[in-house]
Every structure is written in structure tokens, then in C-alpha cells.
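Sample intake sheet
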Amino acid sequence: MNTMEFSKYKSLYIWMIIPMIFMQFGIFEDYWSDFSNKAWSVHIHYWTGTVWYIYLIIQPYFATHGQMARHRTNGIIGMFLAGGVCLTALSMMHRDIVTTEKALASPEQFGPFQPWFFFGVAAVEIVMITAFGFAVIKSIIHRKEIENHAWWLISTVFIIMMPALGRGIQNVYIGMNIKDWPTIDIMVPLYFTQILIMGMLLFGAWKYDKVKHPATYLALGVNLFIFFMEPIGKSEAVQLFLKGLIKG
């Protein structure tokens, strides 16, 4: 990458702070309000995901501010973290299946969160984790093509943002409509979340001339897929498949 191209990306690390803030906003109350009661797997996943986001801020800074040696060293550590994000997310999926059983046994406690919702969450998480891993592998394959390498990594932010941001927006929406409990439409805030994420993705892709990049298509496809979470979660075939696949 020549000097002119580097100058184009000098402010990238600042722009990467924006999705980090959105992610932390989404997960803040859910994670920190009940910190001491969270399972070990939740803590590990939260912190590996958070540190991954931090890396996607500091790595562009190192690369564009004359610290390539540090960028390469941290890149190796970052790949270790990426594996941690995938594995910890996979380790938590059994919780979704357990929650479906709890929601079926105590529907009055879960209100609008019926079993299909958690089956749907598990299904879309499989797609998100797979896409995240694919994007990281592509970034390694294209590590010598700086623009491709960078955009594959940046796309991971928008691939895995939904669970954290969606939970936060969903909590706010439920709070605003608590008088309607348990008939609240819990998918409305998630649809809004997807529009917000795709808006940030497309803005970033436009700013850095990556609208037609395969990583942009992948991240966009993952977020569009989430719009089908409800019918997927309600599918008996999907439910049987997930019960057979994800065992404790």
C-alpha cells in the first residue's frame, strides 16, 4: 500500500470506536447488572469479544502510524483471540437449548420469549459464528493485500454485533412497552437493530470504497438472514436439528 493509500486509512481506528460503543451500549445492562451471577462461559465470551473489538481499533492505528512491527506481532495474538471468540460462542449455545426447555416449562415467567425465539437465536448464531470464522480465515489468506486483509477483519464487527446490540435495544423496547407484557412483539427491536447494523456497515463500506467487496456482501447477508429468525425458530425441522446437534 502506498503512502496515499495509508493516509486514506489513518482515521480508520477512530471510526472503529463507533461500533465498539454500540456493542458496549447493547450489552452493558445485561452483563454488568448481573455480573456476579453470570456463568464462566459468559464472562470469557464477553471479554474475548470485547478485546477483539479493541484490537480492531488499535491494529489500524499501528498499521497507519509507522508501527508495522507491532501491528504484525499483535496480529498473531489477534488470531488467537478470534479463535477464542468462535469457541466461546459455540460453548454457550447449549444455554439456548436449555432456555427453550425453561420457557416451555414456565411460559408465564418468559412472557413473549417463547421457545421458538431461543431456537431462532441458536440458528442465527451458527450462521454468525461460521461467517465470522470464514472472514478471519480470509483475512489471513489475504494478509499481504492490506486493503483486503483489513476489510475482511473489519467486516467481523458487523457480522457478530447483533446479539449484544440487539439485546440492549430489545431491553429498552420492552421497558418502553412493559404495560403490554406479555404480548410485546419482541422481534420489532431486533429488526430495528439489523437496519442499524446494516446502515453502519454500508456507511463504512461507502467511506472506504468497499461496497462491492465480498466481505461486505457476507456481512450484509448474515444480517439479512437474521430477519428470518422467527420462521426459522418456529420450524419443527430446525428445532429437531438443533436439539440433536447441540447437546450438553
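Comment: Residues 3-245 form one domain. The mean pLDDT is 90.
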